[in-house]
Amino acid sequence: MVLTAVRGALGFLSRLPVGHDESAWEAFRRSSVAFPLAGYVIGVFLAIPLLFPLPTPVDATLFLATVYGVTGINHVDGLADLGDAAAVHGAEKRRTVMKDTDVGVGALLAVALLVVGLALAAVGLVALPLEAIVAIVVTAEVSSKLGMAGLAAFGSSAHEGLGSQLIDQTPRGFVLAVVVSVPTLALSWSPLVGIAMIGTSLLTTAVVGQWARSWLGGVSGDVFGATNELSRLVALHVGVVMWTLF
């Protein structure tokens, strides 16, 4: 059951060739632990390009290509939609803008800041030891997926759609997802690094979730995607800072 749920999670959260079927999707959307477990797998793939002794700009470019080659751009699309929604006033207008296929300045700014932020995180990462790179990238991915599990457990649906299908979790399931994420603390020489990364990632999730509830009326598929991207970005930078300073 857990393996089926993880396969469903990887099918939804990445472009890894795990196949897609209804049973895997159903198992995934009812299993909070599948989120962070998938994060471990995805994180390992994302760390690989940063392990090669290449010039820093090349490493950063390969990292960006790998992130979106492995995870796809659906989550970035969610961030872009939220960027456009943040640029207008009124809940109804925001929901309308998010369904619009046109790309506005809010979307462009949000995506640009994300991509630049990821590239700068990669620049900071390649200056660290190899074990630190793996620890930070994997922990960031697990943290971002744990945030999505939190939305699924505590969020309320804005409307019928992908988001409403995922919001079928329980607080108990989220606790299990936290337990599954704890081994990331052992990846770093100091558990404080992992605690800081997971804590700030969950804080980012809480802020996005509260914003979505207040401004959009609840959580949607776009909110899940934006949370994933922003939580990963924040966790990566916090990991680099913590490892460098402590």
UniProtKB/TrEMBL annotation:
Q: Which GO terms describe its cellular component?
A: plasma membrane
Q: Name one GO biological process term.
A: cobalamin biosynthetic process
Q: Which residues form the signal peptide?
A: none
Q: What highest taxon heads this organism's lineage?
A: Archaea
Chief place of localization: membrane
Keywords on record: Cell membrane, Cobalamin biosynthesis, Magnesium, Membrane, Transferase, Transmembrane, Transmembrane helix
InterPro entries linked to this entry: CobS (IPR003805)
Please give the cofactor(s) recorded in the UniProt entry for this protein.
Mg(2+)
Annotated EC: 2.7.8.26
UniProt name for this protein: Adenosylcobinamide-GDP ribazoletransferase
